[in-house]
Structure prediction request, 323 residues.
Amino acid sequence: ALRAGVPCVPGSDGLVTDVEEAVKIADRIGYPVLIKATAGGGGKGMRVAGNEISLRAGLQAASAEAEKAFKNAGVYLEKYIERPRHVEVQILADNHGNAVHLWERDCSMQRRHQKLIEESPAPKLPADVRQRICECAVNLVKTAGYTNAGTCEFIVDKNFNFYFIEVNARIQVEHPVTELVTGIDLIKQQILVAAGEKLPFTQSDIKHSGCAIELRVNAEDPDNGFRGSPGTITKLRLPGGPGVRFDSHVYEGYTISPYYDSMIGKLIVYKPTRTEAIECMRRCLHEFVIEGIKTTLPLAKKMFSHADFVDFNIDTTFVERTF
Prediction:
């Protein structure tokens, strides 16, 4: 990322294997610092340390959690950027040297570093920042020689400075958001690239129109610490209508296992404007019925009705601070 000229959060130069080394790095970049698992995801293997005592304890805890979750105990340090936004860029790159971005998504509505709502375009992101962050994503994948679909993730501070976090080297949960605003089937393109084909379009061909918002529907109890809610779905009534898409594997009578990820579906709406998309999502949530298990749908109704979300005065800590 540094070679590609992409802004990076100050931190360790690779993995930290020694506690005393970690203390020296934290003293250099300044507290608070973020301890992150190199193989992490979904918020696992992450700890915020505000001083040396919490750093020493957090380093061991994050490493142990990462080893248990990912069979990889490696961790590194970053400067902790307080109350940032989370903005990511969808990219496609073929085996013939061509790479393009498909614009950005905002994923700031999270809990425990796990995304709940994703949307495109990213609200209140200045046009010049949007352009630069997308260009940085393309420069990064070209420099790395990356091919196929992927996502370059960034955090954006209150002054619109942005910093690279990581590349998700795969199709992500929120890819339908990009498909709806660009009209490009990402799975189809992923298969064609893997088969050795050239991308059938250039950057100038990729247009962005309208607004798409995705809600992850999880089998969890938001009023009880987001505890998983396995069980059998006894009643299922799905919303529909123009601009509404629901991606899922569940059906009435389906039994949700306690052994896998709690996400049971993705509700995506697409409308000409963000205001219309939010109104559509509210209507869908009113129609949506899942019985037999607890879900995050009641929380979703609150989120989509909250003035700060509607006005987009949020950051990655908004859900936990507010609800």
